[in-house]
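Researcher: Good morning. I'm working through a list of sequences from a screen, and I'd like to move beyond sequence-only analysis. For each chain I'm collecting a predicted structure so we can compare shapes side by side. This is the next one on the list. No need for commentary yet; just the structure.
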Amino acid sequence: MEPAGSVGAATGRRPKIMLIEDDRDLVAMCDAYLTRSGFLVEIAPDAGTANATLTRQRVDLVVLDLGLPDGDGLDLLRSLRQGEGALPVIVVTGRGEEADRVVGLELGADDYLVKPFFLRELVARIRAVLRRSGTDVPSPTVIHLGGLVIDTGAHVIRAAGEPIELTPREYALLEFLATTPGRVYSREQLLSNVWESSVQWQAQATVDEHVYRIRRKLTSAGVEIPRITTVRGFGYRLDT
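Model: Good morning. Structure tokens for this chain:
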């Protein structure tokens, strides 16, 4: 039996992703989400750390922020793409200009994401690039949290072996919170990552209503842990 808070073991070697990014909040979210998605994660806050780490160990793909504190990420991209067997690279940046995207792709980046981005989209892009490079991609994970078992491949949540009937959006919200238990998300962040929307198009009360429905269904299924906790003035977190 898997211990509470564990992720089902993936078959074969887990691909290692290097995340070169200095935004600590973004790194924490990406690290947790990628780990829950079956990847190993190596973090480098700057180009110097990345270069030093890459001389010591092998990674399968690099997620690179172009705006690094110790130099332009484009210079690092050039070095990563030199020679045979160059590392696959996904460029991530806050710069939305077309010129940056074009230069990054011309230098050999395999894909490009502009901040803010959805964590699910990042994982999907990583999986696609790894497949193209011939690297085995981890199977969807099974998350064990207290009285819940979340099968991210089948999109099914069970308690005591019985499925809990959730709408697709309720499932997506609970799965997202389950990828980073203990982390607080604002309603704006949940709208962005779960609804792929914003307060401009969707009311924050939408999040509150879905949380209420999930809580009610978990209670009816006899699930006490994990629970969705309201953090006043901030948002919600999943406690285990």
